[in-house]
Amino acid sequence: MASSMSGMFPGQQPPNVHPVGGPGGPGQPGFPGVAPRTPGSNTLVDELEASFEACFASLVSQDYVNGTDQEEIRTGVDQCIQKFLDVARQTECFFLQKRLQLSVQKPEQVVKEDVSELRNELQRKEMLVQKHLSKLHHWQQVLDDVSGQHRKPSDLPPPGPLTFLEQASANLPPAPLKPN
What we know:
Blueprint: H1 44-60, H2 62-66, H3 70-105, H4 107-149, H5 163-170
Helix pairs in contact: 1-3, 3-4
C-alpha cells in the first residue's frame, strides 16, 4: 500500500507534478518557525501547504503593503490563489485515484463504507423525525389547551351588555357567607 501512496510522503514525487514555489522560495518571504523546504522533496501535501502559506505571504508582504499599484497587488494575489487551487485540484485528483484503486482492489470495503454512511444518514434523519414529532406533540398540546379554554359558539349566551361581567363572575370562587 505504501507504493500506491507515492507522491504523498517525503522523498516521493508523483508523476507530472511540478513543485510550487512558496514561503522561503525565490521572491517569497518565509514564515518564522517554518522550516525551509529542500528542492526535490516536495509532496502534494507539502506543495499544498506551501501554496497556502504563499497566499498569506502575498497578502502581508511589505511589497504589497507599500505598493500603490492596486492592479499589481491584485495580479500577485490572484497568481498565488491560482497556484493554491491548482495544487488543491491535484491533491483531490490523487485521492480520487486512490479511491478508484481501492474500489477495484477491495470492492467490499467500498460497500462497507457506503453501508456505514447510509446508516449514519438514516440515524441522523430518524433523530430529525423524532425532533419534529416532539415539536408536533408540543404544539398539538398547546392547541388542545387553547381550544379547551374557549367554548364553542353554540355554548355561548347571546352577547348582551352584561355578558363580560357574567363570564368574569363565573370564574370567581363563591364569596364566603358572613355569620349573623
